[in-house]
Amino acid sequence: MAGSGLPSLGHVKLTDLVPSEGLASESYKVSVSTLSQSLAQYSAAIIQFPASDGALLRSGLDSARLYYHQRASCPATEMMHTNDSREWCKTSGYYADPQLWLETYDYRPGLTHNDPNGVLEFPPAGLPDIFALLGKAARDILDAVSFYLNLRSSPFTEILDNVPLRNRDISSSVLSVCCNARTSFQGAQHHNLATQEDGQLVMYPDHDHQVDKSLISIVKSDKAGLHIRDIHGRWIEVDRDLGPQEAIVYPGLALYRATAGYVNPALHRTEINSVPGNMYGRCSLAFKLMPRSMTSLSCSEMRAAGHGVEAQFQLPVSVDDFMQRSHPTDQLFNRQNIQCFNFPTAQDGSMKPLMRRRKNDSRSKPLPPSKRLRLEAQRVLKERVQDIADKKGIKLRFCNLKECESHVHTLDSPCANIRMEIGWPPGVPFVHPHDLPNKAKIGFLEAYEPGWTATHDMELSLTEPGQASQRSANCNCNSPQVSYPHCNALCIRCYL
């Protein structure tokens, strides 16, 4: 591990991750830092619930064992798992997957389970209370990750279910009561024998690993056996020494997509120990915080926060399409994510993530004007435009560049009111400055940075020694409005 890394899986109290008004407390900063480091290194963390909530989780596991103990050993054919990705937001009730030796009871608020045989079945007890508990915890954890990434408060609210659900709404998130390797369950013949340790037969399912398509997943089990792959490719058993009030949290594919790959999803697998004392199997409660099906996963919040967004994440993707699409895991981990999670405190008391920066090198060339323009425009958007929008209660929704070129000439365009209320520069498309042409960036900066031209002309010019006279000779701009008499270098507007 790196010197600043965690020696083991991070432990965080859920009460320390609950956001509050005002400045962030020291305990919140430390908890967010620990959580973020653990997710980066191990793709998982341990969350400690209050004592009263821990009792609810334990009773839920007891109810799960009782529920599966009284079930028939061989499920009906219509209850077999079909792996139909089109049904990702419609599962409810009991399902079985003999290939994985797994039984699941899905609880989804707003969707009533109807037994195909017309037999009245009592579900495991306490599911509504457990769903509410884990759902609130998952949202707090998601907000903590957003805080670390320097995003706005609750940036994913628009893609999450309403709290509470409205009439006729069906929850996208789901609470699954799972049972692995119940002795009386038929399906052992479908397993591969992996290894033998300490005289116990250890088996893994046919698929070596799985990845959830959730934003955040929280798992509480009654026995160890959950393995997650860390940043170095090693499989780590993350729930071996869990306390009665602790659960495992890990990110999923939807969060990976919404954060432009800055948060890697967890690859996990479940170990099955075939021993005489394991007759009830391994029971677990698994909550998955899912995005709503009628929304889109977009990286607009990441761009607004100044993060770089690679080409593969530029276009929004429909949640329903995302859930039905296959995602080869060997293509997901192609970038080294943020390694350090310290939070240096600025002089004004604000907290900003520590981003990796290039070391100062006297031999390095200065940034070209177009690069400096882009960085300056992003800074102005963050400090000026966002402040104006916040004070007026405006939610910034930037247009597509090509579409907005026609919007600026009409009064009834989708962005007309926003442009007028925040004083957007006339004639400049209402898009993120990162996407603006360089000449439009100049107009943007001149509108929000009084005196910008006078103070930045020298700074934005190419000033490498020995080249000033050559650039001056190449400058064909004689207009006093765009030339810089006091600058011997090529003027920025001619360069562009």
UniProtKB/TrEMBL annotation:
InterPro entries the UniProt entry points to: IPNS-like_sf
Coiled-coil region(s): none
Residues covered by region (Disordered): 346-371
Source organism, top-level taxon: Eukaryota
PANTHER family: 2-OXOGLUTARATE (2OG) AND FE(II)-DEPENDENT OXYGENASE SUPERFAMILY PROTEIN, U-BOX DOMAIN-CONTAINING PROTEIN 62-RELATED
Name of the protein: Isopenicillin N synthase-like Fe(2+) 2OG dioxygenase domain-containing protein
Species whose genome carries this gene: Carpinus fangiana
